Amino acid sequence: ILATYAPRIHESTSTKLAALFKRYGLCPNFPNSIYPAASFNFGPATVCFDHTDTMNDPCNWCHIVALGSYNPDSGGDIILFNIKHVVRFPPGSSVLIPSAIMRHGNVAIAAHERRMSFTQYCAGGLLRWVECGFRTLGEFARDNPLGKAAYEAGLAERVQRCVQQFSTV
User: Fold this and answer.
1) How many other CB atoms sit within 10 Å of the CB of residue 45?
2) How many CB atoms lie within 10 A of CB 141?
3) CA 109 to chain centre
4) Average pLDDT over the chain, rounded to whole?
5) How confident is the model at residue 68 (pLDDT cuts 50, 70, 90)?
6) What are phi and psi of 152, to 5 degrees?
7) Is residue 65 classed as helix, strand or coil in its secondary structure?
């Protein structure tokens, strides 16, 4: 789904993760999924309050799937606080959001209903690990102070590249 709606983000993430997987002999969690991490929230009434996923890659989209048996006319909506939108989110719905930078949550459901979710995402630290030569920022600074300084100085350029990766209509 990410490749369809955000092909540039998919390509960039895929390239970095391919290097990580090759180096450490890893493989994707699921066939046809780029995401290196997933969470199952088994409920019985999964609710997320207003939050951002600050440890996720800010240039990537999180994939959220609503599961369960609840009345979508009275609860379960996803709330996108930054853009002041409430979106109907019935069981089986799927959404991509930049969860590290977009505040989000969902509306509670009735007491007798069940809501679960399945979420796939990419931690920003994994991609930084690759960008820094398969080491932490601290190790990068110790091993290559000039390289680390250049990496930090390039933040504005990386942010601009990130913005350019987002798809437009």
Assistant:
1) 18
2) 17
3) 24
4) 94
5) very high
6) -65, -40
7) strand
Give yes or no for a contact between 130 and 19, defined as CB atoms under 8 angstroms apart: yes
Instruction: Enter the tokens of residue 106.
Output: 């969902």
pLDDT at 166 over 90: no
Q: Is the dihedral of CA 90, 91, 96, 101 positive or negative?
A: positive
Q: How far is residue 17's CA from residue 26's CA, in Å, rounded to a whole number?
A: 10
Please give the pLDDT value at position 33.
93
pLDDT at 169 over 70: no
Question: Is the distance from CB of 109 to CB of 72 less than 8 angstroms?
Answer: no
Question: In a 3-state reduction of DSSP, which class is residue 97?
Answer: strand
Nearest to 63 by CA among 22, 4, 126, 129: 4
| Residues 113, 63: Cα–Cα separation, whole Å | 23
| 51 pLDDT above the threshold of 70 | yes
Please tell me the pTM assigned to this model: 0.90
Report the DSSP pairing between strands 37-41 and 114-121: antiparallel
Quote the CA–CA distance of 84 and 122 in Å, as a whole number: 25
Across residues 31-38, what is the average pLDDT? 93
